[in-house]
Design brief:
mainly alpha
Length: about 120
């Protein structure tokens, strides 16, 4: 699960950076505000890569997805990209857990004594 979720989050960090470039063109927003918000969001994406398997990591990922969709109020294209990344996040979590379960079953079949020890 960690690999799939981390890949999604790193892709999101890039998209947030590009959205920051687009948001800079909005005359109602100051450049410092845009880059403070974008920088924090990008930092959270990278930090969350390491926290995704810890308790609450997936929930924080969902909060980030909601924030990404909500950023569409500033950069309208982000509504589409936010929903797209939310779908990727769901797929990463869903299929990542299935892959982890399959790996555990395979490891248990390959070495039954290791499964008994765990």
């Amino acid at each position: 699960m960690r690999t799939l979720c981390s890949s999604t989050l790193i892709g999101e960090a890039f998209v947030i950076g590009f959205a920051g470039l687009v948001a800079m063109k909005d005359p109602d927003l100051s450049m410092s505000t845009v880059w403070t918000v974008s920088g924090i969001a990008m930092f959270l994406c990278v930090v969350l890569c390491g926290m995704v398997t810890r308790p609450g990591g997936v929930a924080l990922g969902w909060a980030l997805q909601i924030a990404l969709v909500a950023s569409g109020f500033v950069v309208p294209t982000m509504f589409f990209l936010g929903v797209l990344f939310a779908a990727l996040w769901w797929a990463s979590v869903h299929y990542g857990r299935k892959i982890d379960e399959a790996k555990a079953r395979f490891a248990a079949q390959a070495d039954p004594s290791a499964a008994d020890a765990a």
